């Protein structure tokens, strides 16, 4: 079989304007970036009814072997397109961190891809860079203001600048800097050293996918909403303990100006020419893990079926889809697709890389509890669920048969074997049929908790019903954070859990479907712009690092400017 | 008169494909980014003869009042276009640092602008972000390699990774990180703190305009040249004192991949529809200060006259144009335009903001030495020079008359009053006529020095003949650097001086045309990828800071997504 980049490059692309035309969009609704990308105006479909059905693709708990969730999302989209349905995929833009760090590309794979894959993986239309830029402008502005106020004193500062002093408390700046790379050395740094660069202070860089501004972009309904959310961003506290926002610093307008084009989703296409809206890129372990509300909204008004995905397992991106994104958008899932592989379940039974491709029904049975847990998890939101078994060449009929039977016995609405990777649209046709059948069924969506019930109550609900924990425990720091967030008016915001994606619990080593554990919350952070409170379950890194043999080693360009090694 | 953004917004734009068509480019030569921007393929005009004449716009020594060099460059382009000539401007992309820091926009001004000005000032087609991203990938890769090799030891590192250990000396890493903002707090930082993030070390961020990678992009002739230059980038030394390049680290290919689209110039238009190629953005005080060779090359093959500019005074960008850029491109200037204002000359006589608009012939006479110096400086390169007096409403006829006479008496080939700001093309018609006349004259270009004569010799030549110094003095550090650079094979590279732009000397306080000073070189740095050696004249900041009332304070968007406050 050809490599992903070879398949991508041999695809005959449809001019992107034609893809837009199929969605009923006219040239004044979008701006082309070459023939392969188009920025869609956020109000392009505003006067059309929101009639599409929403399919959210999720997965079992991730393993090192890769479950193929994006392959399945794109394959399903391709299959529905091939069957003649008006379908649109809504996906996140890949961060360069993982692109150069691990995977070397994230655009699906095999014959289920968004193309051209190298454009999707590098810059696309620059939105992630815009988020970094706007985010870091606020950080530079904050440190500069601190510098000038300390240098001159409040009174003299006001006399010379005409601005009221903010009296920023250098020890209580909560706004980090960001970078779209895996840069371990920037996790914990000390800035402002040298002469006249101060004051010195400890701070850090997060990866851009974890920026609150990324969440703002993803959760905004329109420009006015985005501008207001940016104004509410909490950057620091003053020496009297009062919050300082981006609006207070006078930087919110400039940040919005930087994001003026990034608020528009980018239209691309799948290998067989189905439309795909790429927009925003929050990770699902350290952020809310779903693509934008604006892209979904456009897709729901221009298509009959919209396929999107939440990051990682259903305890991560899908939970946040239901409890954060749906609350902000009003768009609940009509159906969920839950992706699983035989390898993933064996891995949850403790089988390692060397044995993972061997037939092993016993291990499959043991690891099945993980899939069972995720089926039940999706069902508790009142959403019908189709399990997609992402097929690999080594899968045996006996294993597949056993798994299909068990899935149906566990309450899933349907099960299908997907060969989207090897066969593209054709390989996902059975899955598409099951999804179509599911979409005719009634749906009784209910989120896991009501934000109005308060943070402490909802933390408990999320821990126990969202992850199967026996309870939740707040560190002294988390308790102090909670008191402060309540004082700042954040008591009734939804929760965004930062936790490992490698277990349903907070502990990456607990495979399968752990129970009895206590979820430890180390700290809480108010994100008044995004409109949620982040809870950190244990020690969660918000800046990844590069491994021993990072993805960038393989990448290069040839003399024609084509990328090789993806 | 309307504001710049109002003028920009009321301009009726020509679809960018039509601008390209006027240059003789077909749709397969470019990719449109909406209707206002187009990325031009680097070989778009490769099979056409290089027949254009090259006009380089430079200026007297900058003052706080602004001399209007870009206004004049664009006004001249507009005037030549209006007169029916095939003309193209080649300009740098504005850095967001100054955009949010000081000026609030850099796209010309008044009725001489590149439009839409807000697109030019924010992101454009993302090239500067791409440079930041590629630059910082190398930095992250370097720290990660250091981390893993130290954590495991060389032998175990090789065993686990299959890579030879680089044995990076943590004290001798010469590759900084970059950010396209004025961020004082990042000038001097300490990274790698915390657990398992190390080793800890001191380092810094530069502004992206100072990145060697920006110079690489600007000086590359084609993709293969760029890829080779990236491979040569010196990142660090190993513990045995041997250099470690981007090629050694295995990151050069990925960096080139990130810059794959950034190597293409972006086509825009002036207010009256003349083509303008925007490409790269090195500052002229801390970098080589000129737009790209690739853009010039395309323009020289598609136009009869190409107007470009070197940053700051003729001792800065113009010197670097002649001694660095021309050497790499083979394209020498056919004519120079030297921009001056009455205010600038009065400022060089010590007149301050309160008095600067008053008629003051005595001050004008006193400050005239600065202009005189720059006329002689341009002439010593064998380039004909037209002095453009950028007109302001308060200028008196008596002053203008006196200045014009003196300019001609000082050896300039011609002089013209430019009203490009207030009147656009029409206001620069006289200037255009003088430039056209000049282009018919023979030109005897000679650079100031031959790189083959060696760094020490050329530092002396540059100090004495390039700036009028009595000599040059190297600090002990600079002498050590020199020895090392010679050992590394950089002895015969051109020099790129990092010095203040506010004086012909190294001392910003020395106005007019200082003499008798000794130019102090504090350190030297080999830029093997860019192909020059940077010499630092005194303490030069490579990361600006935000001032008391930064440009971002005025910026915002309205509900239609339009930017206000530029």
Automatic annotation (TrEMBL), chains A, B:
Q: What is its EC number?
A: 6.3.4.3
InterPro entries membership = Formate_THF_ligase, Formate_THF_ligase_CS, P-loop_NTPase
As its record notes, the protein acts as a catalyst of: (6S)-5,6,7,8-tetrahydrofolate + formate + ATP = (6R)-10-formyltetrahydrofolate + ADP + phosphate
Which Pfam families does this UniProt record tie to the protein?
FTHFS
Q: Give the top-level enzyme category.
A: ligase
Q: Which UniProt keywords apply?
A: ATP-binding, Ligase, Nucleotide-binding, One-carbon metabolism
**Binding-site residues for ATP, renumbered to this chain:** 63-70
Gene3D superfamilies referenced in this protein's UniProt entry, alphabetically: Domain 2, N(10)-formyltetrahydrofolate synthetase, Formyltetrahydrofolate synthetase, domain 3, P-loop containing nucleotide triphosphate hydrolases
The terms under GO molecular function for this entry are: formate-tetrahydrofolate ligase activity
Pathway where it operates: One-carbon metabolism; tetrahydrofolate interconversion
- The name this protein goes by in its record: Formate--tetrahydrofolate ligase
State the organism's lineage: Bacteria, Pseudomonadati, Pseudomonadota, Gammaproteobacteria, Alteromonadales
């Amino acid at each position: 079989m050809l490599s992903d980049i070879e398949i991508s490059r041999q695809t005959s692309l449809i001019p992107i304007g034609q893809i837009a035309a199929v969605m009923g969009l006219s040239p004044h609704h979008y701006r082309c970036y070459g023939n392969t990308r188009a920025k869609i105006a956020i109000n392009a479909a505003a006067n059309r009814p929101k009639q599409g059905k929403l399919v959210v693709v999720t997965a079992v708990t991730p393993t090192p072997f890769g479950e193929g969730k994006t392959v399945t999302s794109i394959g399903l989209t391709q299959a529905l397109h091939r069957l003649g349905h008006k379908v649109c995929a809504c996906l996140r833009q890949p961060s360069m961190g993982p692109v150069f760090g691990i995977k070397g590309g994230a655009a699906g794979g095999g014959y289920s891809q968004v193309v051209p894959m190298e454009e999707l993986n590098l810059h696309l239309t620059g939105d992630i860079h815009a988020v970094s830029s706007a985010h870091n402008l606020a950080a530079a502005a904050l440190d500069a203001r601190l510098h000038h106020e300390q240098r001159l004193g409040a009174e003299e500062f006001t006399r010379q600048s005409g601005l009221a002093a903010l009296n920023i408390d250098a020890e209580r700046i909560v706004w980090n800097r960001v970078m779209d790379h895996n840069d371990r050395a920037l996790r914990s740094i000390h800035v402002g050293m040298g002469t006249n660069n101060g004051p010195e202070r400890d701070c850090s860089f997060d990866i851009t996918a974890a920026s609150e501004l990324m969440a703002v972009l993803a959760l905004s309904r329109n420009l006015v909403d985005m501008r207001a959310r940016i104004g509410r961003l909490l950057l620091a506290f003053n020496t009297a303990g009062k919050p300082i926002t981006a609006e207070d610093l006078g930087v919110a307008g400039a940040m919005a100006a930087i994001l003026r084009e990034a608020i528009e989703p980018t239209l691309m296409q799948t290998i067989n020419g189905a439309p795909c809206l790429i927009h925003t890129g929050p990770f699902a372990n350290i952020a809310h893990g779903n693509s934008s509300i604006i892209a979904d909204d456009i897709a729901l008004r221009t298509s009959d079926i919209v396929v999107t995905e939440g990051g990682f397992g259903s305890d991560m991106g899908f939970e946040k889809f239901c409890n954060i994104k749906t609350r902000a958008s009003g768009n609940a899932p009509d159906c969920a697709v839950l992706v699983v592989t035989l390898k993933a379940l064996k891995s949850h039974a403790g089988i390692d890389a060397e044995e993972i491709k061997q037939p092993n029904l016993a291990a499959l049975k043991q690891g099945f509890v993980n899939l069972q847990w995720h089926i039940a998890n999706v069902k508790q939101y009142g959403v019908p669920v189709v399990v997609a078994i992402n097929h690999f060449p080594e899968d045996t009929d006996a294993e597949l048969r056993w798994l299909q039977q068990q899935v149906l016995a566990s309450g899933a609405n349907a099960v299908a074997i997907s060969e989207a990777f090897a066969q593209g649209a054709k390989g996902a046709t059975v899955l598409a049929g099951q999804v179509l059948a599911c979409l005719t069924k009634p749906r009784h969506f209910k989120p896991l908790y009501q934000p109005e019930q308060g943070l402490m109550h909802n933390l408990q609900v999320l821990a126990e019903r969202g992850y199967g924990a026996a309870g939740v425990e707040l560190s002294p720091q988390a308790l102090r954070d909670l008191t402060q967030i309540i004082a700042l008016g954040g008591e009734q915001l939804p929760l965004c859990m930062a936790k490992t994606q490698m277990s349903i619990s907070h502990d990456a080593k607990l495979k399968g479907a752990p129970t009895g554990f206590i979820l430890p919350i180390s700290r809480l952070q108010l994100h008044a712009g995004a409109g949620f409170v982040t809870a950190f379950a244990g020690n969660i890194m918000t800046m990844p690092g590069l491994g021993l043999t990072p993805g960038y080693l393989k990448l290069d360009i040839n003399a024609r400017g084509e990328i090789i090694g993806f």
